[in-house]
Amino acid sequence: MIVACLSTVFSGYHLSYAVPQTLNYISLDAKPRYHQVNAFPFAHPNAPKGGYIAFPAIGTFDNFNSMNGKGSAADGVQYLYDGLMKDSPDEPGVAYPLLAKSVTYDPQNPAFAVFHLNPEAKFSDGSPVTARDVVYTFNKILNEGAPGIQIYFSGIAKVTALNRYDVRFDFKGKDNKELPLIVASVSIFSEKDLKNKDFSRVTLQAPLGSGPYTVKQINPGRSIIYQRNPQYWAKDLPINRGAYNFDQIRYIYYRNLEIAFEGFKTGQYTLHTEYSARRWMTEYNFNAMNAGLIKKIEYHHRNPIATQSLSLNTRHTPLNDIFFRQALSYAYDFEWQNKALFYGKYKRLQSYFDNSELAATGMPSSDELKVLKPYLPQLSALEKYGVMIDWRYPVSDGSGFNRDNLLTARRILLQRGYRYNAKGQLLDKNHQPIRLELLITQDSLKRTLMPFVRNLKRLGIQLDVRQVDSSQYLERMRNYDYDIIPNLLPQSLNPGNEQARFWTTESANQPGNYNYPGIKSPVIDAVVQQLINAKNRDELITYTRVLDRLLRAGFYEILTYGKDAEWYACWDMYEQPSTTPQLVIGLDYWWVNPQKAQKITQYIQRKPS
């Protein structure tokens, strides 16, 4: 590690910031554990190469440029590209060298970051990766990328090639410690490849990358095969040693998960991620499973549980009424669902960061109160109450009737001026029956959503479930053309810039972004900015917990259920290291057992499931 002077001339730039350092890693807070190792402990450095792994994909695809926000992005494009550095699968907020061998910046006050590229870095056609390619990539993203991506990178002031292998990022401030980590993860394109192409267009020709795989075969809308590049320039870097062992990675497209699962049974793809407790508990009794050729894996991670919810579009009436949204939350009956539908395998989410230290639990701490106090006058009485309590969603008796909670919901609605007509329909403030639409694309969701629909009907609210195809669903999502949608939002242990895309006023006004409830709260805007600018881990935790409280108190979404484990089923032809990373299951470090693969191939070819 080289510590630079307080005032240093670096490649023609005068740097006057406190303690810039040249490091072979980026870390938000924790001391990296693996910056001096030759291989990760969860990798087998000499793992054999060969075979394939196949995944399902839902819907269709028509675009290999995932940065322009057009069309339906192809699955698996991440295997085509390298970033400047690569996130650790075992440490939150830590990244190690990939295209860049090191970075010079001030970890505490990053007003700039200079990435020093590895001279050995090559695109898959053998051409070198240079600082100009990095500048070109970011200029394209900042000027022509999807609107939400532009917001995500809005903290970048400019990107400059200092020479052939050094590229400098200047940031608009020095308070966002996450920005160097964010820019380090971006896929880098080739200027030579893209300069004569229209970046904004949908394309089935993947931009040239430097990653471990290239595109071998495309069956438009149906399948994609990626082929391992044996000349991959970075295969011997510590972060990649023992990784990317499959000769092929395949994605097979299906209309929905139910059809996909039938394909899994017959070996059309080899690794299935299970999201249904019912299926996990009752439907793994088919021939291949009974023959011992498929194994089930429950991987317990240390990440926040992905936030599953019903997003209530506050852009529409009467969902713009916080009391109406509060009443809807009483109609959701988790206890009955978990007993009758989920075999007790789920927990009710009480936080947007459940299963982590980021979750707001109990009463606000003294640090949380310091953050909240200046904003309390800007909150409604209901929001003030919500942020100050030990939050718990309504609990039912699990009988399926949910009588007490529905009576509470009815009382809230009547107190806020809603009325019923002679038919028992709930009327809005204009004396019109309230009718809402719940938009879905997967038929399997109906089973878990119908209890909520029935409970709303008991409240006099007509909720129509409308199923559309994936293309129409994406377009309506992009334009916020829905009343209620089921939403699944992954969260990380290091929340940052992405929170602005989820919850802020700017993102609510921007088509194609991720603020599905349409939240426009000056208080949430301010807290998100404080979270992004947190100077240390303690501050980050405090601001995230405050954000958690504000989101819950606004009843923008109804948090539903989740689990602290990921469920996988795979054809038993893979091996993996004995040590598993803490944050992901580590599929990139698996490899094929040829003997098992041969046995399974023979089974699939001879015996239908």
From TrEMBL:
UniProt key word Signal: yes
Keyword Signal set for record: yes
InterPro entries registered for this protein in UniProt: Peptide/Ni-bd, SBP_5, SBP_5_dom
Family matches, as Pfam families: SBP_bac_5
Solute-binding protein family domain: residues covered: 96-496
Sorted UniProt keywords: Signal
GO terms under biological process: microcin transport; peptide transport
Entry-linked SUPFAM superfamilies: Periplasmic binding protein-like II (SSF53850)
Highest taxon, organism lineage: Bacteria
GO cellular component: ATP-binding cassette (ABC) transporter complex; outer membrane-bounded periplasmic space
GO molecular function: peptide transmembrane transporter activity
Listed name of the protein: Peptide transporter
Source organism (scientific name): Acinetobacter qingfengensis
